[in-house]
Fold:
Amino acid sequence: MLTRRSLLTSVAAAGAATFVTPSLALAAPPGQSTPDGWLARLAAHRADVSAVFSDGTGRRFGHLPDRSLTIASAIKAVHLLAYTTAVAQGRLDPAEQVRVGDWDARHPYVGDGPVGAGSHLNALTYLGIPCDEHGVAKDPERRVPLRNIAETMIFFSDNAAADYLRARLGDGALRAAAARGGWSRPDVRMFGGEVLLLLFPEYCPPPGSPAVVRRAAGDALSNRFACDPSFRAQVLPRAAEKPPSTEAITAWSATTGHGSAAQLFGLHHEIATSRDRAAVLAQQILGTPLAAKRPPGSKALLYKGGNLPGYLVLGFDVLWPDRRPGTSTIFLKNSTQQDLQHAPVLMRLCVDALYLPDTFAALERALGH
Structure:
């Protein structure tokens, strides 16, 4: 069964300590273990790539930027800006003590499999909260500051954190946050609801139903899991007795939340260029995971990505003390396990392009521009 991992974990595992410029050799080595290999991979499969790159100095290009593709956890930048906006406006207190059991109620525990349950376990472990093998706190009465939930949503890509914040904030707050970057009506869904639709396909709407219908079905299952102990008790047995096939997981990935490289770019660029308190708070959280990897002379490197079987999404911003930020977003469909294994190399390539003109030009050429 395919495994979903957070890109933050991939970066740590790969020990990606620096960002490097690809040599511009004509013959690229096979695979994606080097920047040249990734350039060859992208050039050979341009139809699978959607991207927008702007280095903040006037260089910019887009490749199929408006195509709608599975966005996976990269959408969580919307949840983050909605949260920091509520904090900036005094509607949420980041020091509020949240009962861990209420957070767990948004976590449909199914083991560390294709639907990413391990991210919640990693989040609780990071906070020093003892939990079982399914990532559920042993003491549901423990309390954590609300800010920790928002942070682990980004640091570990915890789906339960995103769903908890969406339930607290409401879809109107998420739409308003996305609209700041010109993104109208983002396709936000309960991540837990999508997982439950995978495990309980009998609750899925008919194939071909509008996205809004599927979203409503998933949201209803998520809320049922959160509020109905009898339904919650059915989830682990179902996951054990009827695990989804690789084919089912691949098909499911294509039906989850969508977005475009241009939409994600607009949101990232808005966060990176704005100086109001909400944007600055979002910058601080997005800039923490890769703080040690920021380019020389820069103020910060902001990052949020996502991946599901067959899809890889990256979003970056480089903040500078004396000029406009650079922003890059890239969506790769038909991605493979090899792509995910070597994702840190693509990450370095995307960030290098935001401050090294030769790398920017190499990527632009690879995508036929």
Summary: The first helix runs from residue 7 to 14. The chain has a mean pLDDT of 90.
